């Protein structure tokens, strides 16, 4: 009798294995979450140092237009740490490249899904997929050897600047946005197309009035995704933008972005100094912006679901 | 406007746009390959880089890239696999699961330069690993984890629920079902995902410039003891990769033949990514045929 109760109450071999596997996989997952938390903790604690330890005011930092952290402003006795030139630079290249890329991405995606399906699948699809995977330094190198000399010849000056950065980013995010748009267009149910054509719509009317409307949330997600990539891209932009931390006065004068100043500066400053802390604050802005992009994508997603 | 006319105009516009995009993309690939391929030679691929004179190669950088790729994969794959198994097989729909998914999504959208800076702060400075393969491999793993987790999870989710029920009906625990039923069925698409992510890791540079460093000291390829600093396997030596090399020589601008070297190195990067992309699909399909009866 006793042996039976014991046998029933005892944990089976399977349960033991299951516990083990569950714990193992749970540990892996927790590890990833821990890494995310650590990244936030480290970057925030370093980034906030500028405001806490060095007592730089947040508005001076965000809206100041002079960036020269190693020089002290004689009027305020604070170093020149206005980050607006870089913030402007980052937003300008991001928005400009997204604005240029969107119509091209939508047009190409429509071509691949609605107009020439066979050629789209055979020729465009593999190229777009390959280009999504091309390292960003390669884009930077092409920008440096093709676009910068071209801009120099056409508009004069050094050729470096926001326009060159925009073109490089445009080519870089185009495959990403296109392939995501293609996925969205493909997910529009077939009967939408059939019903539009059945009531006598031309192909363009079907595309414009039905398919694009139905795919709007997905296309927006693709564009925001591209923008997030453009905003965080470091090396390709750094190679062509000219790296002058000045307020952008035109599209063809050298400028800088948050990422370009970071890559140039972090190795040349002493840990814990103000010059170093302000760079971490720039990294913090990058981190927060990627949160914002995430939030926007989520909002678009939940709006799209409600429909 | 006449609807038919509008249709014609719009179709033409779409054709023109697609043509332009195809032209841009083609000419870009063509540019790199035409510029780079003639420069590729056994000498270029195996000899060390020269900073101040022409004729240097990319041998050490190429080795570093592959070594870092292997290490990063070895570190990130088990973690990503575990996380994906938990998310797909064990996690219930709850606020907590939702938060975890959000965290992974955030990690995947973080700019890689931020991941690199985090690696610099924690491993290079705090843990005193210095600019080393180890720091670089961990940073690359962090960069790779969210994407790999997502791709493995998708692979697992594609396996029909019937398979799990069959496992349970045989008296297997959930873990045994995962191990012996679900995973083998998912292997082809997991492999495809891993190889595709390898292509991305191979070309990553921003996460590495402050972790694996920007210098490639000479290596003694006869010495395979990982504890010697000049050994190719030593995890504590600084290791500039191919992608970092392209960035560095272009931003320094000292190397006399930097355009040729960059074009050659870019061509190598693209070819490797091409091989990864191509073999990912082939390998996946082959494994699928071998492991299933179809």
From TrEMBL, chain A:
Keywords of the record: Cell membrane, Membrane, Phosphate transport, Transmembrane, Transmembrane helix, Transport
Topology within the bilayer: Multi-pass membrane protein
Main subcellular location: membrane
PROSITE patterns linked: ABC_TM1
Tree of life domain: Bacteria
Record's function text: Part of the binding-protein-dependent transport system for phosphate; probably responsible for the translocation of the substrate across the membrane.
Family: Belongs to the binding-protein-dependent transport system permease family. CysTW subfamily.
Name of this protein: Phosphate transport system permease protein
UniProtKB/TrEMBL annotation, chain B:
Keywords: Cell membrane, Membrane, Transmembrane, Transmembrane helix, Transport
Domain ABC transmembrane type-1 as annotated: residue spans: 62-279
Superkingdom, taxonomy of origin: Bacteria
UniProt key word Transferase: no
Transmembrane segments: 12-34, 66-87, 99-123, 129-148, 260-280
Protein location: Cell membrane
Membrane topology: Multi-pass membrane protein
Primary location group: membrane
PROSITE patterns per UniProt: ABC_TM1
NCBIfam families, alphabetized: 3a0107s02c (TIGR00974)
Name of the protein described by the UniProt record: Phosphate transport system permease protein PstA
The species this protein was found in: Convivina praedatoris
Primary gene name: pstA
């Amino acid at each position: 009798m006793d042996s039976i109760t014991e046998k029933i109450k005892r944990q089976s071999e399977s349960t033991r294995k299951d516990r083990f596997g569950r714990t193992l996989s749970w540990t892996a997952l927790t590890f990833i979450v821990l890494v995310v938390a650590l990244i936030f903790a480290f970057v925030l604690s370093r980034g906030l140092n500028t405001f806490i330890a060095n007592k730089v005011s947040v508005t001076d930092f965000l809206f100041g237009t002079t960036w020269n952290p190693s020089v002290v402003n004689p009027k305020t006795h604070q170093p020149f740490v206005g980050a607006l030139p870089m913030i402007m630079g980052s937003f300008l290249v991001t928005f400009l490249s997204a604005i240029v890329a969107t119509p091209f991405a939508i047009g190409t995606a429509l071509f691949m899904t609605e107009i020439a399906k066979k050629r789209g699948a055979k020729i465009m699809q593999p190229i777009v997929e390959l280009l999504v995977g091309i390292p960003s330094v390669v884009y930077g190198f092409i920008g440096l050897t093709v676009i910068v000399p071209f801009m120099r010849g056409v508009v004069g000056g050094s050729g470096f600047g926001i326009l060159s950065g925009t073109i490089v980013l445009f080519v870089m995010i185009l495959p990403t946005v296109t392939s995501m748009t293609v996925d969205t267009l493909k997910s529009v149910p077939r009967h939408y197309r059939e019903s539009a054509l059945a009531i006598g719509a031309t192909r363009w009317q079907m595309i414009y009035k039905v398919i694009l409307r139905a795919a709007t949330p997905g296309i927006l997600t693709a564009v925001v995704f591209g923008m997030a990539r453009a905003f965080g891209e470091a090396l390709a932009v750094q190679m062509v933008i000219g790296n002058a931390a000045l307020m952008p006065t035109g599209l063809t004068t050298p400028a800088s972005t948050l990422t370009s100043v970071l890559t140039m500066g972090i190795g040349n400053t002493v840990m814990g100094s103000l010059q170093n802390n302000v760079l971490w604050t720039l990294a913090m802005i990058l981190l927060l912006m990627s949160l914002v992009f995430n939030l926007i994508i989520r909002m678009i997603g939940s709006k799209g679901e409600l429909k | 406007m006449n609807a038919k006319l509008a249709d014609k105009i719009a179709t033409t516009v779409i054709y023109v746009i697609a043509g332009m995009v195809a032209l841009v993309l083609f000419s870009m690939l063509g540019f790199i390959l035409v510029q780079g391929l003639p420069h590729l030679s056994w000498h270029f691929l195996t000899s060390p880089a020269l900073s101040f004179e022409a004729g240097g190669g990319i041998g050490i950088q190429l080795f570093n890239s592959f070594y870092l790729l292997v290490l990063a994969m070895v570190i990130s794959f088990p973690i990503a696999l575990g996380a994906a198994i938990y998310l797909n097989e064990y996690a219930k729909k709850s606020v907590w699961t939702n938060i975890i998914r959000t965290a992974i999504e955030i990690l995947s959208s973080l700019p890689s330069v931020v991941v690199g800076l985090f690696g610099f702060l924690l491993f290079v400075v705090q843990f005193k690993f210095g600019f080393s393969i180890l720091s670089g491999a961990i940073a690359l793993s962090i960069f790779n984890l969210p994407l790999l987790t997502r791709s493995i999870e998708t692979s697992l989710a594609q396996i029909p629920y019937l398979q799990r029920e069959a496992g349970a009906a045989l008296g297997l625990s959930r873990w045994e079902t995962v191990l012996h039923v679900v995973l083998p069925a998912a292997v082809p698409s997991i492999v495809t995902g891993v190889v595709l992510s390898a292509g991305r890791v191979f070309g990553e540079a921003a996460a590495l410039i402050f972790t694996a460093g920007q210098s490639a000291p000479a290596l003694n390829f006869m010495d395979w003891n990982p504890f010697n600093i000049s050994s190719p396997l030593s995890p504590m030596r600084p290791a500039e990769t191919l992608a970092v090399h392209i960035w560095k020589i272009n931003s320094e601008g000292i190397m006399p033949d930097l355009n040729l070297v960059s074009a050659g190195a870019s061509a190598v990067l693209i070819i490797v990514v091409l091989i990864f992309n191509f073999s990912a699909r082939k390998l996946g399909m082959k494994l699928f045929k071998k492991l299933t009866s179809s």
